[in-house]
Amino acid sequence: MKTKIIKIPKIEDPRGNLSVIEKDILPFAMKRVYYLYDVPGGAERGGHSHKEQHEFLVALSGSFDVIVNDGKEEKKIVLNKPFEGLLIPNGIWRELKNFSSGAVCLVVASDVFDESDYIRDFEEFIETVG
C-alpha cells in the first residue's frame, strides 16, 4: 500500500504547541486546503479515489478512521494526532468513518477541485486498478 503516515514538525512551547506544514514535508505542492467538521454521528465522508490528485489528511481535533484500499489490500488507519497525517496518493480508495464529537479533518491537496479526477463508484475503481 502506498499510503504513509508523515510526522509534522512540532514546536513545543509552554504557551501551546505549533505544527507547520511547509517546504518539503509533503511530496507535492499544495494547491488546495479544505477541512471537514461538524460531521454528524454515524456519517461517512470520502467514498472515492482520485486519478491524479494526492491528498494529506490530518486530524486537527478529535479522531476518525480512514479506510484505504488499493484494489488488493484494505487497511484502517486511525488519525487522532494533530502532528501527523496520512498521505494518500492517487489510485487509492478512501472512506472516512467514526468521527468523534468535535473532530476536524484537514485535507491538503495537490490540485484544485476537478470532478473529472474523481472515481466515485467502487466497482469502477476496482476495474481501473485492475
TrEMBL record:
What domain of life? Bacteria
UniProt cross-references to Gene3D superfamilies, sorted A to Z: Jelly Rolls
What region holds the Sugar 3,4-ketoisomerase QdtA cupin domain? 1-129
Protein name as catalogued: WxcM domain-containing protein
